[in-house]
């Protein structure tokens, strides 16, 4: 709990927050949960406009689930078991999609592989004939900021 408070306090410094208490998903949204942690000394806070969300019939594109998810870190062993020709095709497609900077951040563990990114990577591997388990350097459970 203490670690979560510290994490929320750190994230609230720069993260888009929400103060909409009327939202039906406020109790499950990271943005709403972070709002009380915004330092009182901040003059300007970036916040979701509750009136805009109401105008969208309550559908909020900014909702972030407060449920921790499995993330993967690092792909340095990713291609070890994949045949070279298949690995080249997968690597090419991933770099084309993410760009080389983002791809290498994912590969080197400087950026976490989120569930959405993992779905894309899995699709690319499957489309290139690789259906085995994917090898990442580390697996962890975190909030999907």
Write up this protein.
By secondary structure, the protein is mainly alpha-helical. The protein has two domains: 2-55, no CATH class; 69-142. The protein has six helices and two strands. It has a two-stranded antiparallel ribbon with strand order 1-2. Helix 4 packs across helix 5. The longest helix is centred in the middle third of the chain and has 15 residues, at 84-98. The radius of gyration is 19 Å and the shape is elongated. The two termini are 18 Å apart. The mean pLDDT is 91.
Structural topology:
Blueprint (H helix, E strand, L loop, with lengths): L1 H11 L17 H5 L15 H6 L13 E5 L10 H15 L1 H9 L6 H13 L10 E5 L3
Antiparallel strand pairs: 1-2
Which runs of at least 5 residues are low in confidence (pLDDT < 50)?
Answer: none
Question: What is the number of helical segments per DSSP (H or I, 4+ residues)?
Answer: 6
Topology, number of strands: 2
> Tell me about the biggest sheet?
2 strands, antiparallel
Strand content: 5-15%
Distance between the termini: 18 Å
Features:
about 140 residues; mainly alpha; 6 helices; 2 strands; about 40% helix
Quick overview:
This protein has helices at 2-12, 30-34, 50-55, 84-98, 100-108, 115-127; strands at 69-73, 138-142. It is mostly helical. The protein folds into two domains: 2-55, no CATH class; 69-142.
């Amino acid at each position: 709990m203490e670690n979560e408070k510290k994490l929320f306090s750190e994230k609230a410094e720069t993260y888009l927050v929400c103060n909409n208490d009327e939202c039906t998903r406020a109790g499950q949204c990271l943005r709403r949960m972070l709002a009380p942690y915004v330092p009182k000394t901040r003059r300007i806070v970036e916040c979701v406009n509750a009136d805009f969300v109401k105008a969208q019939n309550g559908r909020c594109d900014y909702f972030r689930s407060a449920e921790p998810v499995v993330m993967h870190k690092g792909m340095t062993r990713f291609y070890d078991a994949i045949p070279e020709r298949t690995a080249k095709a997968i690597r090419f497609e991933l770099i084309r999609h993410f760009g080389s900077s983002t791809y290498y951040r994912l590969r080197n563990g400087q950026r976490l592989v989120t569930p959405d990114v993992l779905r894309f990577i899995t699709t690319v591997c499957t489309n290139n004939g690789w259906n085995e388990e994917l090898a990442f350097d580390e697996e962890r459970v975190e909030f999907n900021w």
